[in-house]
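We emphasize that the prediction below concerns an isolated chain of 84 residues; any contacts that depend on oligomerization or on bound cofactors are therefore not represented. The input was used exactly as deposited, without trimming of termini.
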Amino acid sequence: MASAGGGRLTVALGVMKLVNNEDAGMTVNERLSHFGLFQEFDAAVASRNVSAVVEVLLRAQLTPEQAQETASAVVSNPERYGFA
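Result of the prediction step, given as a token string:
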């Protein structure tokens, strides 16, 4: 299973800055790391289940809109984001 922890996701989505709370300046990768969610995120992406990916991203405190947009992008083209 590919790991988003290697920086591949940062390259693709790292420009998306989050504005949900006090951790507003964190990227998606930083939030996944901060909340210890990389393994769950990887498993959700591997399942190709957008809802599962959204759930993990919401736990990383993305807004619902950010979570849906990010999940849809990654699940629709996982190879682009480093997932085989």
